[in-house]
Structure formats: structure tokens, C-alpha cells
Design brief:
The structure holds 2 protein chains of 2 kinds. Chain A is mostly helical. Chain A has 8 helices and no strands. The model of chain A has no long low-confidence stretch (mean pLDDT 94). In chain B, helix 3 packs parallel to helix 5 and helix 5 packs parallel to helix 6. Classes of the chains: A mainly alpha, B alpha/beta.
Chain lengths: 248, 252
């Protein structure tokens, strides 16, 4: 029953989140503030993790392919590129953002609920779901794909550094692989994943944070639940997108 | 004037409000008092629409707030100012931004006009030169004063205060009470204050409603309260044996 309540509550929140704003300028300002929080605030961690993910992918795949000995090493560029575009960059970046951005959103809204700041907005006549939730989702849908594109670029760079420094392949071999058999559809699938993931990363923590009741303990609990639920939803949605868009 | 008619509210099995009716007059400080759990906060939240009543009606100057939808309520909400227990200032905004927020959201004033209005409100609550401070840099009393400034920035017709003196020392409490009283008289607002501070009752209680176990138990003013010698209200006002004896001896 609680599960159905939550689904209903979540859908109602989403509907209100995109209702007509009271004053467009205020909503735009809030959306840009959220973009800075989500985007700039996550740049360094996404950069570090994606670079090393690319590097470790190149090193470990090269190690395995070398031991088999039948596959040319220039394939590594193609393997790293495809892996990053289709899976590693969108999924790992999103899981990372689920932890960082998701817990931030749930804690922020939870604290606002407990300290009656949300009530204060309501009393003024502000549609709180529209003003507090809408800009967060919109900002995530704009900024998360940008972060994921950056993650792909840095991952490819990391893959090159890892492979070349480890003497698994040369720069020329890697570049040849990167250019080989490039499909636009892979990039389209990546962007589809980005949009779905961004929506999940912002909306589930918003729901959890917005509906906190009690005290500080409940804020922590809501934050944890938000991260866990978001992560689970990410991997499930990831599977279905891959299944329907890449399956034969 | 605000009228509440036969308000009932339950949370699960527990009925918190059991049919409360009262009239809160314009230009007066109307106090709702009662023990913890008597239904004061739920009554106040029902009046401002944060809690929906199961039965009954809230009427603002002849306009039934309860029967309105979200959009219709917006117009009445713009006539309402509210001071919350902890101030409820927006953490991420400066004092100036907090007070200016309703102006930004609901008026077409220029920045200069808004800044002027913010400064008038800050001056009114004796908080000049705090424009750029953040809520985290303010004391409890200062937060309440900024909360009052934000509540009156749109010149509301109705002011609600939830436990305005909680967490404040007696002297600061008096300052806040006097400020609320002066603002009420100056703007001729209908002010409803939820409190269990007896100093407030004796100081600014133009009209007092005493709630007990979800019912309205007593209604009157601060002079009439002093005539009470027994019953639940007497136990509430003179909570300790020391005070009870003091009151009885004074009567003798």
C-alpha cells in the first residue's frame, strides 16, 4: 500500500513540478542556480573518476587481449570508445551523481521541510513543488548530459594515457581504433540514457526530501533512501534502454 | 476578521480538533493558548491552509478559504504574513533577499523600490544594516525580527505567529511581543498568535482563546483571565503550586 502511495505521490509531484510558474524570471534564476550547483559542483569528481575509468578499461582490456594474442591492439581504441559511450560514462557518472547530487537534493529539501521553510513558501502562495522541484529536474536534464559528454572525452583521454604509458599500444593504434566503425546510433542511445538518468537523479531525491516528516534522523534516512532507490532505478532503466534500443 | 466554524481534524485514530469555532478580530492581538497537544498548532495550520480540516470552515472577511481551490487561495495567501517558530528564513539567502522574496515573486516593483521597501521593514523591526547577513549569522531574536519583517513586507491584512517567543529570553520575548502589538495596531491587521507564554497573554492578549483537549474551553481577554480561580484554565495559567497559592492569597 505504501508503495502505491509513493508512486501516486511521486506522479502528482511531477505533474505539479511542471505546472505554470508564478513568475518566469524567478524560476529561471532558480534553474540557473541549480545548474551551477549540480554542474560546476560535480565537475572535478566526474573528471577524476571518468579519466581513471577510461585508463583502467584500456589497461585491463589490453592485458586480457594481449594474453589471448589473436586480437590486434588497435581495437583498444574502439573498445574504450564504445564502452564509455554506451555504458561506462552514462552509468558510472549517473551512479556517482545519484550519491552526490541525490543526497544533496534530499537533504536540502528535507531540511527545508523540517525547518518550515517549505511551509513559509506555501503561506506566501508559492507553488512549492513547481518552484523547488521543477528547476532541480530541469537543471539536471540540461547539465547531466553535459557532464556525461565530458566524462566520455576524459575517459577516452584516460584510456590513451593508460594504454600508452603501459606500453600496450601506440597513439596511432589507439586513434585508428577510435575512428573505426563509429556509429551515430551509439551516441543517440547515450543521450537517451542521459536524459532518463538525469530525470531519475533529480526527481527521486526531490520526492524523498520534500516528503520528510520528523527530525534530523529522518532527513538522514530520506537521503540514504533517495540514493539507494535512485541507484536501483538507474540500473533497471539502464537495462531496459539497452534492451529495447540495442537488442536485435 | 477571521472566523473559524466548527473545525474538526483527525490524524489517523486521534481526533485533535473536536469542533472549534471562534472569531478573531481586526486590529487586535488574538491569542490561542493551551497545553502542548491541545490543538493550537493544528488550529493555526488549518487557518492558513497548511492542514486541511475534516469538517468546518475558515472564513477571511466573508470569503470561505476552505472552499477555495489552490489558485483561488493564492489571492488570500498574498494577504497573509506568517512568523514561524524558528523564523523559517531561507538559509541560502541573505536577510535582504529573504525579505525581498515576496516582492520579487508577486510584484512588478523595480529593484530600487523593492530595496526601499525592504529597508523600511528592517527599520520597523530595528534591524537596520543587517541586509547582507545570512540567517546563520543571526541570534534567535534577530531571526524572529527578520521573520516579522518578511511577514509584513507585502502589507498583509492577516498576521499569524506560531510560538513567537519560543527559545527566547524573557526580555527579548517582551520586545517581540511589543513589536507584534505595535505592528498590529499600526497596520490594523488581524493577528493570531499561538503561544503558551503567559507574559504574552498578560501583555498583548486583547482576545484569548483557550483550547483544551481539542475543544475551545474558554474565550475572553487578559483582564477576564485574571478573574479565573479554578478549572483547567486556572491550572494552565498558574501551573505551579507556588503560583496558585500566590493567586489565591492575592484574592484574599
Amino acid at each position: 500500500m505504501k508503495f502505491l502511495d509513493d508512486i501516486g505521490g511521486y506522479l502528482i509531484m511531477i505533474r505539479h513540478a511542471f505546472s505554470r510558474p508564478e513568475k518566469t524570471a524567478m524560476y529561471s534564476k532558480e534553474t540557473f542556480r541549480q545548474m551551477v550547483d549540480i554542474g560546476i559542483g560535480s565537475l572535478s569528481i566526474v573528471a577524476i573518476i571518468s579519466t581513471f575509468i577510461g585508463a583502467v578499461t584500456a589497461v585491463q582490456f589490453s592485458y586480457q587481449l594481449k594474453s589471448i594474442g589473436l586480437v590486434p591492439m588497435w581495437w583498444m581504441g574502439s573498445i574504450v570508445r564504445k564502452g564509455l559511450i554506451l555504458e561506462l560514462a552514462p552509468t558510472i557518472t549517473s551512479l556517482l551523481l545519484a550519491g552526490k547530487v541525490g543526497s544533496n537534493i534530499a537533504t536540502e529539501l528535507g531540511s527545508m521541510r523540517i525547518s518550515e521553510q517549505i511551509d513559509a513558501y506555501e503561506i506566501m502562495g508559492v507553488n512549492t513543488r513547481s518552484y523547488l522541484v521543477g528547476p532541480k529536474i530541469l537543471a539536471a536534464v540540461v547539465v547531466v548530459p553535459m557532464l556525461i559528454v565530458m566524462a566520455v572525452a576524459l575517459g577516452i583521454l584516460g584510456g590513451w594515457a593508460g594504454g600508452v604509458l603501459g606500453h600496450f599500444f601506440t597513439t596511432a593504434e589507439y586513434v585508428r581504433g577510435l575512428q573505426d566503425n563509429m556509429k551515430n546510433w551509439d551516441v543517440t542511445v547515450m543521450f537517451i540514457k542521459c536524459v532518463f538518468f538525469a530525470f531519475i537523479i533529480a526527481s527521486i531525491p526531490c520526492y524523498k526530501g520534500y516528503n520528510v516528516s520528523g527530525g534530523a534522523l529522518e532527513i538522514g534516512r530520506a537521503s540514504t533512501q533517495a540514493v539507494v532507490l535512485t541507484s536501483i532505478m538507474l540500473v533497471i532503466v539502464n537495462f531496459f534502454i539497452a534492451f529495447f534500443l540495442l537488442g536485435e | 476578521m477571521i472566523e473559524i466554524k466548527n473545525i474538526k481534524k483527525s490524524f489517523g485514530e486521534q481526533q485533535v480538533l473536536k469542533g472549534i469555532s471562534a472569531v478573531f478580530k481586526e486590529g487586535k492581538c488574538n491569542l490561542i493558548i493551551g497545553k502542548s497537544g491541545s490543538g493550537k498548532t493544528v488550529t493555526l495550520k488549518t487557518m492558513v491552509g497548511l492542514v486541511e480540516p475534516d469538517e468546518g470552515e475558515v472564513v477571511y472577511d466573508g470569503r470561505s478559504f476552505t472552499k477555495m481551490n489552490f489558485k483561488e487561495r493564492k489571492f488570500i495567501r498574498r494577504e497573509i504574513g506568517m512568523l514561524f517558530q524558528g523564523g523559517a528564513l531561507f538559509d541560502s539567502m541573505t536577510v535582504e533577499d529573504n525579505i525581498r522574496f515576496p516582492l520579487d515573486m508577486f510584484t512588478g516593483m523595480t529593484l530600487a523600490e523593492k530595496t526601499e521597501q525592504v529597508n523600511i521593514c528592517l527599520k520597523r523591526v530595528n534591524m537596520v544594516n543587517t541586509n547582507k547577513k545570512y540567517p546563520g549569522e543571526l541570534s534567535g531574536g534577530m531571526k524572529k525580527r527578520v521573520g516579522i519583517a518578511r511577514a509584513i513586507v507585502l502589507n498583509p491584512k492577516y498576521l499569524f505567529c506560531d510560538e513567537p517567543n519560543s527559545g527566547l529570553d524573557p526580555k527579548t520575548s517582551l520586545v517581540i511581543d511589543e513589536l507584534i502589538q505595535h505592528i498590529t495596531e499600526e497596520y490594523q491587521m488581524t493577528t493570531v498568535i499561538n503561544t503558551h507564554d503567559m507574559n504574552s497573554v498578560m501583555g498583548i492578549g486583547d482576545h484569548v482563546v483557550f483550547l483544551h483537549e481539542g475543544y475551545k474551553y474558554w474565550e475572553g481577554n487578559r483582564e477576564e483571565i485574571m478573574q479565573i480561580t479554578e478549572g483547567e484554565l486556572f491550572d494552565f495559567i498558574f501551573a505551579s503550586d507556588f503560583l496558585k497559592n500566590l493567586r489565591r492569597n492575592a484574592k484574599v
